Amino acid sequence: MNTDYMKISGITVVLDIGLIWLLLRNDLVIFDRTFIVTVLMTHALFYYALFYENHSLIDSLHVILFFYLSVSPFLKNKWLLGLNLFLITTIQILWVIEERCILNRESNQFGYAKSLSIYVLLLTIGLAMKFGWTLFAPKMVSVNMS
Q1: Whole-prediction pTM value?
Q2: How many of the other CB atoms lie within 10 Å of CB of 102?
């Protein structure tokens, strides 16, 4: 397994630990629970694809990643929002450090383009705002109601 795949595997393991913890410990709405279960199933395929270097499957899952990130602003659980914010921030940091998407090969350039960077930046801002709102708004409302 190449070093890029080892980096992405490590990040995915960290995310999976958080997702499993959330699934086991929290009272989640059905959308959040479904999101977690389908992400974990997708990650199982991802580990398989990385281990066997199945590039066509990696490419497909690479595109699916952005679908999940695009629906993440509709999540309700603050920690699940935080995990998605962590992921999208990590992706952008890797883009800057590596000057490419680490899942890309010569034949596939999805995941590192100006238009996608702008979209991901705007999505990051939206996720950060919702994450902040879910963390602090309940406290502000309870303080104002007293």
Answers
A1: 0.83
A2: 19
